[in-house]
Amino acid sequence: MIGYVAFSPVAVEGEELQWVGPAPLAVDERYRGQGIGRQLVYEGLDSLNEFGYAAVVTLGDPDLYRRFGFEPAARFDLRCRWPDSAEAFGFTVWRMTPSTASMAR
């Protein structure tokens, strides 16, 4: 296996909102730097779009995920339930719609 990405369901205060998070995302060291991770994320986001997911949230390298159109979650008044993790890893969101953002508050 060269690379892998999975998207896991995310609940907000116990409520399922059709949100997911990429976990895990991995590319074999020997194949890194060839765009495989980027392709995995783009293909995953395309599939999620087809299935109608409302948003994708990450706890990961914000610079990496910004390349795919993720934005800081704070911009949508979203806070991570694990504040130390959000500070250490970055908390970002993709494809947030106004109606989805209002459900998270």
From TrEMBL:
N-acetyltransferase domain mapped to chain residues: 1-99
Pfam families: Acetyltransf_7
One GO MF term: acyltransferase activity, transferring groups other than amino-acyl groups
Name of the protein: N-acetyltransferase domain-containing protein
Native source organism of the sequence: Klebsiella pneumoniae
